[in-house]
Amino acid sequence: MCATLGPAAAQGDTEAHVPFQFSTLDTVRARGYVICAASRPTPGFAQVNAEGLWSGFDVDICRAVAAAVFGDPSRVEFRPLSGESRFAHLALGDVDLVVRNAPWTMTRDTAFGGTYVANSFYDGQAFMVPSSIGVVSAYELENLTVCVANTGESLRRVQSFFFSGQVAYEELLYEDREDLAVAYRIGLCEAISAPASWLHSIRRTLPEPAAHRILPERLSKEPYGPVVRSDDQQWLVIVRWTLFAMINAEELGVTSVNIESMLSARTPGIRRLLGVEFDAGTELGLSPTWMREVIRGVGNYGEVYERYFGASSGVPLLRGQNALWTNGGMLFAPPVK
């Protein structure tokens, strides 16, 4: 089924507007909600409470897509999937997008029928230590035991880091994240090395999260982002620009709190983002004001980050690379125009 294109396509602008061959949007609308998936519950990113309600950074990305399509962020279903099955379920249409997948690599982006739409979270392997040891940089680590997963890349990065500094240390190897967390919690190691997002999730489970520090240095680059099927350009663009709308909103100072007053702003970028004087939706099969609904229903990127990783979360995680490019980070989105 092909989605209806806007007037420009009807006039033969085939270079700018290629007909969509498969419409996830039509399927989602007919179903009445968006189905999102992640590899497994990860505190801060995706967790479920006793009532079965999901929350977290990644969950809000899904809710934002629902707001884009329906104007209602609650019209979403969230499913945890194992790492072995995530792309298969996506290819079969069992889920509409995967938000907490594996880091973006060329192989994952080209070999399994899925496409990463944009970076939503910049991650990387780091170290976590008890604040009591007085260390504020990974370059201060020495003569201590480090818990690390016994996987090729994670272990090699730790070995390379300490070798380059000619620093003595000991390794304590485990199979997976749960083992690392247990060993660190009971004091078998003074430091733990894993992706910063993992470390943050582990820290949230500790008796005194504030007594532990994730050090700022990164041993790798591991960008995460939503993944959609490769056969639907329309859906890819919708999910991509949902995230871009949230990033642009933060840069422009548009929030879920001030959005009504911003409708009368005179700044061109704000007026285009909120659909006051620019239609960013019709050619995608969405409302001309769909970006407005995303911000109203979920908030801008900074609001979502603060909700789950800021001071109000109780377990803050410095934004670092996930800060806006204007604040020294890597978060950047093309303008709406």
UniProtKB/TrEMBL annotation:
<keyword id="KW-0732">Signal</keyword>
<feature type="domain" description="Solute-binding protein family 3/N-terminal">
    <location>
        <begin position="33"/>
        <end position="262"/>
    </location>
</feature>
<dbReference type="InterPro" id="IPR001638">
    <property type="entry name" value="Solute-binding_3/MltF_N"/>
</dbReference>
<dbReference type="InterPro" id="IPR018313">
    <property type="entry name" value="SBP_3_CS"/>
</dbReference>
<protein>
    <submittedName>
        <fullName>Amino acid ABC transporter substrate-binding protein</fullName>
    </submittedName>
</protein>
<dbReference type="Pfam" id="PF00497">
    <property type="entry name" value="SBP_bac_3"/>
</dbReference>
<dbReference type="GO" id="GO:0006865">
    <property type="term" value="P:amino acid transport"/>
</dbReference>
<dbReference type="InterPro" id="IPR051455">
    <property type="entry name" value="Bact_solute-bind_prot3"/>
</dbReference>
<keyword id="KW-0813">Transport</keyword>
<comment type="similarity">
    <text>Belongs to the bacterial solute-binding protein 3 family.</text>
</comment>
